[in-house]
Amino acid sequence: MNEIREHSQLGTPIDRNLALELVRVTEGAAMAAAPFMGRNQKEAADGAAVDDMRNSLSYVDMNGVVVIGEGEKDEAPMLYIGENVGNGNPPDVDVAVDPIDGTRLVACGLPGGIATVALAERGSMYFTHVPYMEKLIVGPHAAGVIDITDTVASNLARIAKAEERHVKDLTVVVLDRPRHEQLLDEIRTSGARVKLIMDGDVAAGLMAAMDHRTGIDALMGVGGAPEAVLAACAVKCIGGGMQARLWLRPGDEALLEREGKSMADVSQVLGRDDLCSGRNVFFAATGITDGDLLRGVRFMGDERVETESLVMRSYSGTVRYIVAEHSLTQLRQRH
């Protein structure tokens, strides 16, 4: 009886109420940030996206708490960690937001900037003050063969076998950072190809999980811990595989102590379900600048704007792409 009740509360009714609402949230944030594309105004772009996203979330039928957000309350006036969002009605959910994944990409007019939101049952999202994680993300076919504690070459060999291809056919996406020099050497030595990206950790993880659509077979390397949780929500919706573990910089030991963790926790491998344990997970993203994953915001004249988004839910495994045309005049009147 409890199982039946849980499904009735967390299944299709929430899908109907929240899925498209999330797309509206990311569409609004993307349209708010898009005018700043290439203007070298990171703070202005991010501020516009945050303002719009917070306003849109206030209309969503949920009692949400921000678990992954813009930072602690003292440093982030809106969408800070612990902030309540939504209209206060059930369901109770954790909320992860990144109003701009790739703020520098948008500011510089480079590809791949997106706006993202994820929801899951209350208490199901992982949180840490440690800012970085090492990550390994793959698509559904290779989900069961990865091992972040093993060598790069061994992982790539198993991924290739699971995908029924050769290692030389694989493409691995990696953040272009000095810390990845050895990783890049190992990937190239194995024979796989590399796609370097400047920023956009969440989008890159999503591309790896959607390998057959994007041509990216794996994400490897160190990136943001908050972005790891957002990526895990998306990977879970797709059925992909993900492993991560905390990655410390000098001085980060104090952050571990603050959370009651020890150095033993740094070596702990966190799977997809450790990062997001919810069974009812929603993820939405809208392109801000053109990228491999989504097309960016298009201004069409006469106050018309076109967006491309995707929305996913783990309950059904559905992935929807949505191309929408918006009237800026009417949107301003609504607000």
Description of the structure:
- The chain is α+β, with helices and mostly antiparallel strands.
- The protein has helices at 2-10, 12-33, 42-57, 103-108, 152-162, 181-190, 201-209, 211-214, 225-238, 253-258, 263-266, 272-275, 328-334, and strands at 63-68, 84-85, 92-101, 114-121, 132-138, 171-175, 193-197, 218-224, 241-246, 270-271, 282-287, 298-301, 304-313, 318-327.
- The strands form two sheets. Strands 1, 2, 3, 4, 11, 12, 13 and 14 form an eight-stranded mixed beta sheet that branches. Strands 7-6-8-5-9-10 form a six-stranded mixed beta sheet, with helices on both faces.
- Mean pLDDT is 91; it is low at 1-13.
- Major sheet attributes: 8 strands, mixed
Let me know the number of strands.
14
State the shape: globular
Order of helices and strands: HHHEEEHEEHEHEHHEHEHHEHEEEEH
- Gyration radius, to the nearest Å? 19 Å
Q: Name the quaternary structure.
A: single chain
Please tell me the overall pLDDT.
91
The percentage helix is 25-40%
Structural class by SSE content: alpha+beta
Separation, N- and C-terminal Cα atoms:
44 Å
Number of helices: 13
